[in-house]
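Quick note —
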Amino acid sequence: MKKNIFVLAATFIISATLLAGCGATDEKVLELETAVGLMMEAKESAEETYLDITDSSMEQKLQELEEKAKEYVELDYKRITDSKIDEIIPEINEITAEYQSLQQGFSETLEQETKEQAEAEKHMNVQCYLVNKTGMNLVSVVLHDITEDTYSENLLGGNVTLNAGYTLMGVVLDVTKASSEFEFVITNDNNTEFTLSCDDLSSLKIDETSITLRYDSESKTGSASLFVSDTSDAGTEEENVTSSEASTASSEE
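Predicted structure written out below.
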């Protein structure tokens, strides 16, 4: 009787060992392959979107996830068991969820950057310099886009006075390409505001461009002219550029 019990026990152990050595069932292997496939799809999608955005702050996170994903891609299915598959599938799904979360964030960033790029393409930044021939000391010069009805900030900056006859270098105009009508709104040191009609800014070049501000107190009309260069005043203007910069610096103090 004892002999029979021993034989039965040995048979059970051998059978269990043989089953364990046979590897995972086809059904479980399919579950594993599906989980790994979904993980790799999420990985590829996140990485592709990441390449399309300018933010590079998640580079290390993606590298860490790639190392984790690599472990499951390189699994030897012949040596894995059903129980092991049940154990690692949740781990794979966790990596997939992380990739999907990153993908969502990248997509939102890409959408925002695309909108900003589209908006930026509607504008052009023009480097120019302002020549003050209004006969007044100016504390504010603002570009009014009449088409869009928008106003720029004070082009002189804070605590700066552009004295009569002086030139201010390094001014940047943000011009909407589709706009066709502009004017400059100037304010003198007596806090009086004047409006100067303006040439079509669509003719402005990206390189340094002169914009000469004029005002006639008798007719009470003013203008902002592009590319105007009075030969008779050339020497005076050249001298005043340097002086204006010194005056600007002292004004900021």
